[in-house]
Specification:
By secondary structure, this protein is α/β, with parallel strands linked by helices. It has one domain. It has 3 helices and 12 strands, in the order E-E-E-H-E-E-E-E-E-E-E-E-H-H-E. Strands 1, 2, 3, 4, 10 and 11 form a 6-stranded mixed β-sheet that branches. The longest helix is centred in the C-terminal third of the chain and has 13 residues. The radius of gyration is 16 Å and the shape is globular.
């Protein structure tokens, strides 16, 4: 298990994990965690709105004329959608996902970044398999990613995995 990131408002300690997708400063993650109560949930997805700019999001809306490329990112099993020629956008919210840890009273961070709550990427069968209606959840994700992409150059990609045809 990784380092302690802080505590939820409800008192549970939150730890980073080796393969988390944390993209927040130490101060910002502490502030976000302090605004969340666990309410006894084993998995928490939460968008925290600050009411002022806290950073820039790399997940942006796309248009029909945008140039798109798909590539694999490290620590991911499928291709992510990227848009070329866009910049990140100022944002006032942070999204985090947490899962209950191995010890009582602790949570493990799965992801944390500046931005609104996205849909999982369409290749994330592990996420969909845990939903009440996996097919409906996957369709919702595909609908989201039809009109959204990550800004090219904002994330590391695995060289040689780039394709221009949607792989999902």
């Amino acid at each position: 298990m990784g380092k302690s990131l802080g505590f939820l408002r409800s008192g549970e300690e939150v730890f980073d994990r080796e393969n988390s997708h944390l993209k927040l400063s130490d101060e910002l993650i502490k502030e976000v965690l302090g605004r969340i109560s666990s309410e006894g949930r084993s998995f928490i997805e939460r968008e925290v709105e600050f009411g002022e700019i806290v950073g820039q999001t790399i997940c942006v809306e796309t248009k029909a004329f945008d140039k798109i490329v798909y590539a694999r990112r490290p620590k991911r099993i499928g291709h992510s959608k990227f848009v070329l020629g866009h910049s990140s956008e100022f944002c006032s919210s942070v999204f985090v996902a947490l899962k209950v840890g191995n010890k009582w009273g602790e949570y493990i961070l799965c992801t944390g970044f500046v931005g609104e709550k996205p849909q999982p990427e369409p290749w994330d069968w592990k996420y969909f398999s845990k939903q009440k209606n996996p097919q409906e959840a996957k369709e919702k994700a595909i609908d989201f990613w039809k009109n959204h992409a990550l800004v090219w150059g904002s994330e590391e990609v695995i060289t040689g995995t780039e394709v221009i045809v949607c792989p999902w």
